């Protein structure tokens, strides 16, 4: 099991089905945002509840907001139950098919990519917030 680290110059793309249409399109857009894309397929890499907490905090979303409420996994595990925040994060950690759409993380910002083009918000945000060191500026 590998450990995930957030590197500021690396775009981290987290999804549970890279072969889905949304997964493929989001990956293509990711490569236009950054030359350094680290893809995390949740079917092969398990994120800890601590990492999920960090991700949902970056997204400024509640864990249920990133879950596919129409999925069989959601209906069986979550729908009629009342979970604590930790319980929902634990469910995400152990049931990757709960994730509704890819998540992209870049320059300490995260975007929930319900549409593949949502990832482009990182490009705009990262360029406006990125400060060029004085010795590299072209004035």
From TrEMBL:
SUPFAM superfamilies: Thioredoxin-like (SSF52833). Belongs to the ArsC family. This is Glutaredoxin. Coiled coil: none annotated. It comes from Fulvivirga lutea. PROSITE patterns: ARSC (PS51353). InterPro entries: Arsenate_reductase-like, Thioredoxin-like_sf.
